[in-house]
Amino acid sequence: MKKLSIITICYNEPDVRNTCESIVNQSWQDFEWIVIDGGSNKDTLEVFEEYKQRINKFVSEPDNGIYDACNKGIRLAEGEFVQFLNAGDSYYDSDVLMKVFAGKEYDADVLYGEQYEVYKDNPHKSGVTKSPDVIDKNYLINSCLNTPAVFIKRKLFETFGMFNEEYKIVSDYEKFIVFFLNGVKFQHLDEVVAAFDKNGISSSTASQSLHIKERDEVLNKYFTQEEIKAAYAQTKLSFLEQIFSVKTTINRRHIILTFMGIHLKIRIKRRVHV
To answer: What does pTM read for this prediction?
Structure first.
């Protein structure tokens, strides 16, 4: 059995060659590569034709959306882990998979690393998004793991079911919540795994209202209003503390002022009683 199944979903993606090059140039190759194409045009299919010697399984046919395509890929997968590196996205560098898998074993069922977000129209906004060391309820209510930077044990889909195809954008978000609430072990990888195209379907302006609607449905399905409000309040407090906070050291000899991430340590002058 291969260690990893890479699943690439595609439909007329102009940057598909970049994704293909990123995969075939990995220094660690103990993976199978599954391409699920939604019936792309001739130009896209010609690109895949160039990489047919490395593609292990290839399907090109109309589908009912991205999660229908993802589920097709999962059904074909045989690796211990599955990863979704969709057309347009790429690995951060050629040694990513070697650093994650070569000579390593994990007792966790979900491995998650960092993601480099690419803004093609505004390169100055591009940068690495940091994930927390520990996944908790507050994080999942307020945020989501970066799916291209996540490796999921294939057996989890056998245990907890496939992606919910009723959702168009947030089914991966829902699945991470299901995993967490059922005690699945997550492990943070201190590696930048993927470069993600922020111009993709879940990032477009046209999809934002649908994203919000679906996300609210998922939150209300798995959490109470009290849990959601508490998580929002905690995140707001944490943000304010990052901007400005006043603390004293353990020995109470100094005050530590924090403003916009800058820390200033001030010695406390104590009155001398005579």
So the answer is: 0.84
